[in-house]
Specification:
The protein is of the alpha+beta class. It has one domain. Helix content is 24%, strand content 30%. It is globular and about 50 Å long.
Amino acid sequence: MIALLVTVSVTAPAGAKANQTSEAVAAEPAFGVALEADGSAHVTLATTFNLTTDGERQAFQALRQNETAREQRTERFAARMRAIATRAENETGRAMQITDAGISFRERNDTGVVTLSVTWDGLAAQQGDRLVLKEPFDSEFSLDRPFRVTRPDGYELASVSPEPTERSQNDAVWSGGTDFDGFEATFAPSNGEAGADDGLGGSVPGFSVGTAVLAVLAGVGLLMYRDRCRR
């Protein structure tokens, strides 16, 4: 089982230098979706650097100090997320929007973490008093890193498929390489049950091959930057 430490990132505007903090950071690279009660979500892509090696430490510091590189990677991530949101909006008929793109830097002990983030409006469907998270993760979605979904305040995870690798009161985590075909996570108010007419409804077609995985490809820019600085 893969365990992650919850990271509460302070998102810096593109071009701004983030300060080092002593808060916990993710132990491994991760893709995160933190849901809100209105169906929007804070979506993050974290890439880690081993600060005990000269190459990765220099790469982490160089990226943090390079305003142009930070802006490029932030915009690349936002552009790819916008493309996915547009496709999901067309498939579902649900209005979606990507805003508040940012990049943040954290250090703890010997790990540096670069986190790209956006706000995704309309990611989860509101069905009665329930929230259902499916698209774009329910078809042709794959990750090379853990996938973490955090419940909205006042909600609990009522049902989920596939079964998470790790599950806590607030989060569900799937390990990298999990088969997400047919993915669905339903959240219900924690102080009551959903009404009888709050069914999940029919399945919405997923993305074509390779479309949904664009979300994680934004990390390639960070990996290439890290590898180039190692030389």
